[in-house]
């Protein structure tokens, strides 16, 4: 549906949570990760981190269950958006989303979600290891193939006999 | 580490306010249905029907709890005035109509106390009663549909849930009528103890509680079978974080103690406090049924998270994200 998407390579993520910080600063002015539109899930004991945000599904669950019709597909932007002026904070979309992507903002008392920072995602800008990338939707598989090729070459280099 | 078992946390989006709303709407509607049925069958013992028809008051108290759970409460009306959009707004209309009609019926039923005769109103009352009965039934069923309409929570997405909530509404409702009748007969000894009504009510109650137990068992069984998500919810109730809510709140208080106490009460008919105790336990059980079902409505872990866990063999995640 959308032109550009966020692609996440969890193997690159260091779990620094800078994305959460800059996201909350950009959207709310407060450096408060609990109000961020992106969340890093952690498995500390093995050092694995997974940043998760809205996937802008083709057939979103959130838009279907929203009783206020605040959560809807914006055809111009090619993405799912929540109208802040309509949302009454019933949290039904949060219940329905399999990614846990819409998040309830305790300060604004409405549900918020990733809007790609109007075309310049701050999480991508500040992600030092490059775990989050903002690419054309058509290129997603290309990016993944490239990463797989890189992994393969590095593995080959390390292996004995090469 | 218990390998192979993933215990998820209860959902945190809809809180106890929703459970209170569903519970009071259920008891209020159920007691009204049972009360009207008793009146139609001719068991109404006193000069007034008020003691059977006070259910709408409970629904009136319960309705604001749904709004309490919202982020921005004043936007509630904007949303619910459009009935096409959601079950939330359809429910708002059902409940509002039921509250209005129910309170009118209740109001008329207390008129004899004030010395106003309503003997000429029987045809008007009959129409009101039928409309009120249908709306009360709709309210009881709706409490389940509200949860069912969040289609993507597997634990709620079954038509057994409205059935379960309706049966529970009838059983808690009939208990509420038993308690109010008993209370009234104790407070006004001159009117006498309505033996016939109480016998019918108690046997209705006993049948309903057995039906409710069967429906609850079926509900949990089919939800357990309904994929990983439903299994996670059922497990959360049976042995996870909500196990005390389930075993003590729902099973012991809602089924076990009432059945035992009713058996004891049938031997000692004079000990009315046994019936009171029984009623209190059953009503508490009814609340925890809603509470447990609401909090166990968790969604599955999202696909990426599951992929990573399978990939790295992490089968002991305790935290539910979101």
Q: State the CATH topology of chain B.
A: Formate dehydrogenase/DMSO reductase fold
What form of chain A results from the Cα inertia axes? globular
Taking all Cα atoms into account, the compactness measure Rg of chain B is 22 Å
How far apart are the first and last residues' alpha carbons of chain A, in Å? 44 Å
Strand order of the largest sheet of chain A: 1-8
Bulk shape of chain B:
globular
Could you explain the architecture of this structure?
The complex is a heterodimer of chains A (162) and B (322). The N and C termini of chain A lie far apart (44 Å). Chain A has helices at residues 18-28, 61-65, 92-96, 122-126, 140-158; strands at 4-8, 39-43, 48-52, 71-74, 79-82, 103-105, 110-112, 132-136. Helices cover 28% and strands 21% of the residues of chain A. With 162 residues, chain A is α+β, with helices and mostly antiparallel strands. By secondary structure, chain B is mainly alpha-helical. Chain B has a single domain (16-311), classed as Formate dehydrogenase/DMSO reductase fold. Helix content of chain B is 69%, strand content 0%. Chain B has helices at 16-40, 55-68, 76-80, 87-109, 122-148, 160-187, 195-225, 227-238, 243-267, 272-295, 303-311. The longest helix of chain B is centred in the middle third of the chain and has 31 residues, at 195-225. The relative contact order of chain B is 0.15. Classes of the chains: A alpha+beta (162), B mainly alpha (322).
């Amino acid at each position: 549906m959308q032109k550009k998407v966020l692609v996440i390579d969890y193997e690159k993520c260091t779990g620094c949570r800078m994305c959460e910080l800059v996201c909350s600063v950009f959207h709310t002015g407060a450096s408060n990760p609990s109000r961020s539109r992106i969340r890093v899930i952690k498995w500390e004991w093995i050092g694995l981190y997974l940043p998760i945000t809205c996937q802008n599904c083709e057939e979103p669950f959130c838009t279907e269950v929203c009783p206020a019709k605040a959560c809807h597909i914006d055809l111009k932007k090619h993405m799912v958006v929540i109208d802040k002026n309509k949302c009454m904070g019933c949290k039904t979309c949060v219940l329905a989303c399999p990614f846990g992507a819409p998040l309830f903002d305790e300060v604004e008392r409405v549900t918020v979600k990733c809007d790609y920072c109007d075309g310049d995602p701050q999480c991508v800008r500040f992600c030092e290891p490059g775990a989050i990338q903002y690419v054309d939707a058509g290129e997603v598989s290309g990016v993944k193939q490239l990463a797989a090729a890189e992994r393969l070459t590095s593995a080959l280099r390390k292996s004995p006999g090469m | 580490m218990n390998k192979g078992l993933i215990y998820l946390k209860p959902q945190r989006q809809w809180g106890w306010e929703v459970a209170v709303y569903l519970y009071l709407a259920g008891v209020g509607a159920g007691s009204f249905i049972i009360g009207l049925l008793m009146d139609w069958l001719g068991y109404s013992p006193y000069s007034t029907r008020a003691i059977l028809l006070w259910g709408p008051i409970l629904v009136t108290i319960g309705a604001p709890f749904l709004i309490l759970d919202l982020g921005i409460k004043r936007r509630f009306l904007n949303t619910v005035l459009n009935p096409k959009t959601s079950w939330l707004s359809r429910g708002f209309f059902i409940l509002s109509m039921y509250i209005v009609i129910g309170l009118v019926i209740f109001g008329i039923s207390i008129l004899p106390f004030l010395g106003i005769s309503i003997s000429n109103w029987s045809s008007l009352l009959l129409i009101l009663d039928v409309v009120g009965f249908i709306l009360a039934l709709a309210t009881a069923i709706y409490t389940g549909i509200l949860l069912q309409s969040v289609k993507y929570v597997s634990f709620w997405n079954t038509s057994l849930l409205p059935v379960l909530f309706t049966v529970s509404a009838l059983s808690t409702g009939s208990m509420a009528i038993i308690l109010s009748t008993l209370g009234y007969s104790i407070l006004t000894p001159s009117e006498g103890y309505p033996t016939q009504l109480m016998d019918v009510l108690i046997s209705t109650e006993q049948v309903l509680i057995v039906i409710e137990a069967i429906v609850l068992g079926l509900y949990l069984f089919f939800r357990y079978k309904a994929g990983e998500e439903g299994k996670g919810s059922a497990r959360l109730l049976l042995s996870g974080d909500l196990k005390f809510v389930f075993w003590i709140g729902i099973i012991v208080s809602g089924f076990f103690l009432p059945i035992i106490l009713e058996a004891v009460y049938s031997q000692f008919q004079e000990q009315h406090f046994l019936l009171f105790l029984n009623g209190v336990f059953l009503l508490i059980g009814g609340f925890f049924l809603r509470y447990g079902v609401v909090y166990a409505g968790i969604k599955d872990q999202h696909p990426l998270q599951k992929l990573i866990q399978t990939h790295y063999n992490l089968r002991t995640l305790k935290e539910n994200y979101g």
